[in-house]
Design brief:
single chain; 114 residues; mainly beta; four-stranded antiparallel β-sheet; globular
Length: 114
């Protein structure tokens, strides 16, 4: 059974940092690219960034470029999102997704306070 489980969300002050994780199971993690999305209240889910199977290639939305970094540890079946210089507009539920599939995690809330 495929599972994607996000963790590490919470509340952080503007300008701070947070790292969230997505632990995968039930499929060959190293064979798939992975993506992070976020969804703010009342808004559509948007792509934050993605990485290829090895983690060597990444792509980010303009809104987070230079502040967020995606990495992955294939031996631990985990993908990470390091978020620095957080802004109030980064407040959202963050989801991981396996590229090329409809596998989604349940999401983790990130709240950036003023």
């Amino acid at each position: 059974q495929v599972q994607l489980v996000e963790s590490g969300g919470g509340t952080v002050q503007a300008g701070g940092s947070l790292r969230i994780s997505c632990a995968a199971s039930g499929f060959t993690f190293s064979s798939y690219g992975m993506a992070w999305y976020h969804q703010a209240p009342g808004k559509e889910r948007e792509l934050v960034g993605l990485t290829d199977r090895s983690g060597d290639i990444t792509h980010y939305a303009d809104s987070v470029k230079g502040r967020f970094t995606i990495s992955r540890h294939n031996a631990e079946n985990t993908v990470y999102l390091q978020m620095n210089k957080l802004k109030s507009e980064d407040t959202a539920v963050y989801y991981c997704k396996t590229l090329g599939t409809n596998y989604w995690g349940q999401g983790t809330q990130v709240t950036v306070s003023p």
